[in-house]
Amino acid sequence: MPGLLRGVARTAVVAGTATAVSNRVSRRQAGRWAQQNEQQQEPQQPPPAPEPAPAAAPAAAPADDMSTKIEQLKQLGDLKAQGLLTDEEFAAEKAKLLG
User: Fold this and answer.
1) What is the DSSP code string of 9-37?
2) DSSP state of 38
3) What is the pLDDT of residues 4-58, one digit of tens each?
């Protein structure tokens, strides 16, 4: 009987180790495939060009002008978050926008 238990225990350890290794290999391979897909898709999709800031009309209402500036700041923040603008470019565009 002890030999039988020892054999069952050994089989359980081997099966558990094999499952753990298999799962780790599967996750690593899935990560590599995802990384390859990202690299293949990057050249195909050109980054969106930042929209130029529209010139504010002299007779524009202050509330309308402020909401326009806030919207443009949000767009700049989105471009920076996507990695399309560096910190320096973001700061320069923000300074232009805020005057």
Assistant:
1) HHHHHHHHHHHHHHHHHHHHHHHHHHHHH
2) H
3) 777 777 787 777 787 877 778 888 888 888 888 887 776 655 566 666 665 555 5
